[in-house]
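User: Predict the complex with 6-O-phosphono-beta-D-fructofuranose.
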Amino acid sequence: MKRKKKIALLTAGGDCPGLNAALRGVGKAAILEYGMEVIGIRDGFSGLINMDFLQLNEEKLSGILTKGGTILGTSREKPFKESKYHDFIKSKPEIIQENYDKLGLDCIVCLGGNGTQKTADKLSALGLNVIGLPKTIDNDVWATDLSFGFDSALNIATEAIDRIHTTANSHRRIMVVEIMGHNAGWLTLYSGIAGGGDLILIPEIPYNEKTIISYLEDRAEKGKPYSIVVVAEGIKKPENKKAATYIAELINKTSDLEARETILGYIQRGGSPSPADRVLATRLGAAAAESISDGHFGIMVAIQNNNTVRVPLKDVAGKLKTVPSDMLLLERARQIGTSFGDC
Ligand code: F6P
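Assistant: Here is the predicted structure with 6-O-phosphono-beta-D-fructofuranose placed in the model:
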């Protein structure tokens, strides 16, 4: 009789909505379609070092589709960052290799963003069977059109900007809203456009302070009672200042306009995944199980042109997907009067 394949799932890096939907997708397909045994590793790569895991069966994977966060917990442990604790103790990658064998694993599925795909690639280079799945609200994972978590965060950020509009109007203020995204502007760009932001600042487009002020003053002179500025956390600014604080202070100091800032923060990563993220996570998860069954490892399952595809981890690792400066969406936004603070 053929030996049952045994696989481990882990979630690493910052959490986001859709992680549980993806765990359910891989786990259920692995158990029901391919007859595999599935375990969950707690707290990302830490659990792989500390042998902290639990058995995942159909019951454990039921009822989690709509839940935010991750039932496995997560951490920002990077096992390759420091090669040795001491000269006489094994390195973390060596411990992981040993634990992989002790657990009798046939594959580890790593759900995470850029850092996680990089670690997954390094583990794969050590000879472990590894598959990556792209999650992040930042949408900056290379080689995939979308990552789960992005759509949910986009919904949250857009709703917040919608709410900011009414108070901005009542007080005739400039409201500066700060959106997450690390060094990429996807979430700011999309929520800025969806929320009708007047000025959108993203890390990919260098801004000019004078342009920002004259654009906002011009709107006020034209009788617009308020303006909404949507700013990415990753824009150029002094290190000790939050992006929204810096821009609001700039407006208050150098114009007669009154500005206030709102930093959305972790609310963007919390709560139930959107329907689109549930579907995406389920598709990617089940496709990962299929890849394991085919014996195809060292890949990340991605979405390209609405198809699930397998991309070599070595082609993903270490790359960042940022907003291209020639993206047509930027031009469309400019056509309706949106400013990116650049000219
Ligand atoms: O990568 C997701 C993200 O939420 C970024 O948008 C943000 O910069 C970062 O994680 C925050 O990370 P932490 O959870 O370590 O504070």
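Residues 14, 76, 113, 136-138, 180-182, 233, 269 surround 6-O-phosphono-beta-D-fructofuranose (CB under 6 Å).
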